[in-house]
């Protein structure tokens, strides 16, 4: 996959999947705009990229960025935040945060930056496999990610006249700071890791590089006839009835 001459925006690029994908894109020649909450973390990802400290759920901030944003050949929207709890136990403020971080933010970026996408561009949204299948204690996050999956399908239809593609990927648990923090907060991190790994037939967590490879495929011309899809990448968890 050669991304030479392609300009791509990556959100959530200061850590985890976003950081790994940004570095893989840079190795393949892409010109990158990196957005996230912490400017220093973005600089650590790729010192030579363009960096933008951005709250993607802030309409005014995203609109201001869009005014000065150059034309884009692609977007990889990784930014999000995990919120745990059931419907009854989750405070309304936490639910609002889950929607803002995982759905409103990508919606605003696509709303304001859609006109900046070149014809035949490609957009990949990072959802979650628990936006496809319900599990306990992740209600707000699951609902937000399910909405993100539908956003990808809607955008695929709306952007099709310009040959712009939009897809979502739905990862299972991967070794990122967000998942590691959840494990460390548990009473028994080792046991929690083992339990998390057992939810898929391959019996392990994924690696960011494995998910990033799928994202790069969707951003590249190799997937030119793929749009409006939601692709699980979760060690087979979505195929198993648990």
Commentary on this structure:
The protein has one domain (7-235): NAD(P)-binding Rossmann-like Domain (Rossmann fold, 3-Layer(aba) Sandwich). With 242 residues, the protein is of the alpha/beta class. Helix 3 (59-68) packs parallel to helix 4 and helix 4 packs parallel to helix 5 (139-159). The termini are far apart. It is built from 8 helices and 7 strands. Helix content is 42%, strand content 17%. It has helices spanning 16-27, 39-45, 59-68, 92-113, 139-159, 177-184, 189-197, 208-219; strands at residues 7-11, 31-36, 50-53, 72-77, 117-126, 165-171, 230-233. The mean pLDDT is 95.
In short, what is this structure?
42% of the residues lie in helices and 17% in strands. The protein has eight helices and seven strands; from the N terminus they run E-H-E-H-E-H-E-H-E-H-E-H-H-H-E.
Task: Provide tags for this entry.
242 residues, Rossmann fold, 7-stranded parallel sheet, 42% helix, 17% strand, globular
